[in-house]
Amino acid sequence: MKKVVIIGGGIAGLAAAVHLKSAAKVHGKEVDVLILEKNQRVGGKILTERIGDYLLEGGPDSFLPEKVWTVHLAKHVGLEGEMLPSNDEFKGTFIFSDKRLHPLPEGVMLMVPTMIRPLITSSLLSWSGKLRMGMEPFVRRRKAEGDESLASFVKRRLGKECLDKIAEPLVAGIHTSNPDNMSVLSTFPRFVDMEKKSGSLIRGMLAALKHRPQPTLSGPASKPGSQNMTYFMSFKNGMQALSQACAAYVGDGAIRLGAAVEAIEPGEKAYTVHVEGGEKIEADAVMLGTAAYDAAEMVREFDETLAGQMRRIEWSSSATVSLAFRREDMKAPLRGFGFIVPRVEGRRVNAATYSSIKWSYRAPDETVLIRVFVGGGHHEELVHDLDDAGMVRMALEELDTIVGLKADARFSRIYRWFKGMPKYTVGHLDRMAVLDRSLSFHPGLQVIGCSYRGIGIGDCVHQAQIAAEKILQA
Ligand SMILES: Cc1cc2nc3c(=O)[nH]c(=O)nc-3n(C[C@H](O)[C@H](O)[C@H](O)COP(=O)(O)OP(=O)(O)OC[C@H]3O[C@@H](n4cnc5c(N)ncnc54)[C@H](O)[C@@H]3O)c2cc1C
Predict the structure, then answer these.
(1) Residue 383's pLDDT band (boundaries 50, 70, 90)?
(2) Which of 277, 253, 262, 259 is nearest to 9 (CA)?
(3) CATH, range 315-423
(4) Where does the pLDDT of residue 214 fall: very low under 50, low under 70, confident under 90, or very high at 90 and above?
(5) CA 199–ligand 1 middle distance (angstroms)
(6) What is the number of the ligand 1 atom nearest to the C-alpha of 67?
């Protein structure tokens, strides 16, 4: 029987284990799977906490159903009835600019406008900014091949105002990164493709909307033909339901908690996995599901090139601050799911999500739960420098300035993610090609997780499944 050791019990490691267990049956093979996780819990950055009647997310609060692999995984591990669409009747994104909140013009998809009227009437952009965005179909295709920074791509196609007021805050929110050195090829390959094929993002996006596959989720927001398919999904009991259901599916016997791996050592036919405390485990195949900088420490003794590529991936640190308020204390109306803040505004927070408006089952009716984002693309030093009291004070001051919310929080909870998000900087895909070449010298060794080919949960799940399939096919 083939033995596969997976190092790291984040969503990538768990999805790989689920795939190995279920696909092995289809292939008529027997596979012995073991996850080694250094912490006392699985899930990694997926971290849901209950405090009284509140449900808090420390890390991800959602997954994108458009990336179908998470939906399929959730159904496979028995969570179909637990899936929770966002409360789209309240949806809307607001952008803080020139001292007030403006709605993101309807029809703007990530940064590409697909409707003329809302763009024309938007209070967010100047006339020259609107005109520049509207001229996008007439901008010539880029001749040069190869990677480009997201900032350069957006400025070239849609103009600087679109970059500063829309693309940067939206993207910084998702990637907690800086568009000046973010690789457009690794973060938005779809846009590069649209420019190549349609000569325009607006034309490409309109064509994609027309031919969009029909959603498979049930519910009013996802009726066939609807332009308003639910964009965000979670679970009634929070995102941790997914990691826990995956863990239950693979079984307790296949998971070792508190097992920190120090190194792996290739042998003639198999790998030896060295666990802290001196234990050695033999495995036919090993999947590295930790952050790349941790994986680098495990492989450096036998492949310094591979370790070097892993170390070259840069990381950003961020924090989420969850604050609960009494509804009657709130002086300001909360519109949409929250707001984002462009870097050019110089504020100390990036964004806030009104968690109990975006999702059901998150807070008692008479209260409001808000989650504020700090660090990442801007003012990363605050994640290190502010103590908990200072961080809460700062978040409250910013909420007051941005939304006019003058209220004390009933309670607060801070989650800090040091080196929590990889930055896919320009040239990332080339570095991944070198990494793949190094890996090809080590049959049975796979790398999975957010460090490499997609930071979202959907991408982590998909890449883990591909890697697990390679191990089964070998
Ligand atoms: C604040 C925040 C908000 C986010 N929001 C979203 C969102 O809304 N939607 C979305 O799709 N994505 C979101 N993401 C991104 C997403 O959560 C992550 O990219 C994804 O969860 C990473 O999964 P992973 O398995 O690659 O890594 P991780 O979750 O980091 O798992 C790696 C595991 O490896 C373990 N490990 C490390 N070293 C060792 C060792 N030596 N031995 C054994 N085990 C080890 C760690 O303890 C950890 O459990 C967010 C991320 C953050 C930080």
Answers:
(1) very high
(2) 259
(3) 3.90.660.20
(4) low
(5) 36
(6) 11
